Amino acid sequence: MGKTKKAVILSSGGIDSTTAMAIAKSEGLDLYSLTFDYGQRHAVELESARRSAEAAGVLRHLVVRIDLRAIGGSALTTDIAVPRGRSAGEMESGIPVTYVPARNTIFLSYALAWAEVLEAPDIFIGVNAVDYSGYPDCRPEYIRAFEAMANLAIKAAVEGKLTIAIRTPLIHMTKAEIIRTGTELGVDYGLTHSCYDPDSKGRACGSCDSCLLRRKGFREAGIPDPTLYGR
After folding, report:
1. What Rg, from alpha-carbon coordinates, does the chain have?
2. Is 156 strand, coil or helix?
3. Which DSSP symbol is given to 184?
4. pTM score, two decimals?
5. If you average pLDDT over every residue of the chain, what do you get?
6. pLDDT tens digit string along 86-135?
7. Short-list 95, 52, 60, CA closest to 74
8. Can you tell me the distance from the alpha carbon of 90 to that of 88, in angstroms, rounded to the nearest whole number?
9. Full domain range(s) for residue 50
10. Is residue 226 included in any domain, yes or no?
């Protein structure tokens, strides 16, 4: 038997990344999950990422600490108010203040470095271009561009030893489709966290864009929402 192929999974502890991890597991890949403590106001997601990775049986869960608060420019890393109670039309009208400058580029670059060391050809990221907040680094054209760059950037690819694929299994799925897929794969969404601005006990606000998309997803999937809402 040949050795199992490895995959690096970007894991935030949310619905999308946890479902992407379950899909990678269903393919029989050896999983290495990568999470970032970047100064986000919703740092409670770090524990959700740890628990979700443990439940998935990853071989290693790595938490990298970087200080994106020093750069700022986002409601998730500075004292800018997180939008609440927005309509679907408002969420689709532009890029919100919860966008973190170049976040997925930064995260994928770390994942690329780890993938080269692990000799892992697959990097999974749970980006979605359907039910999402309009972030530019969730679009298919961005992912294609990063993948092309990745295979120009690393020694292993230049030497022909490794070809990197940026895997985005959720990119064209609605949140309801994602939740149904994960449920079929045995994901416990009670371990996950989505809220951008939880209270001091880690309970979800229920009204930020991420909470609204989460609630909508469970409602449309016809699956009970296990989230503990504090407001």
Report:
1. 17
2. helix
3. H
4. 0.95
5. 94
6. 998 888 888 999 999 999 999 999 999 999 999 999 999 999 988 766 89
7. 95
8. 5
9. 6-221
10. no
Whole-angstrom distance, CA of residue 42 vs CA of residue 29 = 30
Range 126-150 burial, b when 16+ CB lie within 10 A, else e: bbbbebbbbbebbeeebbeebbebb
Alpha helices (H) along the chain: 15-26, 45-56, 88-91, 103-118, 140-153, 155-158, 175-184, 209-221
Virtual torsion, Cα 87, 91, 94, 98, nearest 10 deg: 130
Rounded CA-CA distance 146/125 in Å is: 12
Q: Which three-class secondary structure string do you get for 69-90? A: CCCCCCCCCCCCCCCECCCHHH
Q: How many structural domains comprise the chain?
A: 1
89 and 62 Cβ atoms separated by less than 8 Å: no
* Cα 127 off chain centre by: 6
How far, in Å, CA of 10 to CA of 227, rounded?
22
| Residue 230 forms part of a structural domain | no
Is the pLDDT at 199 greater than 50, yes or no?
A: yes
Q: What CATH code is carried by the domain that includes residue 15?
A: 3.40.50.620
* Partners of residue 208 on adjacent β-strands: 84
Q: Is residue 15 part of a domain?
A: yes
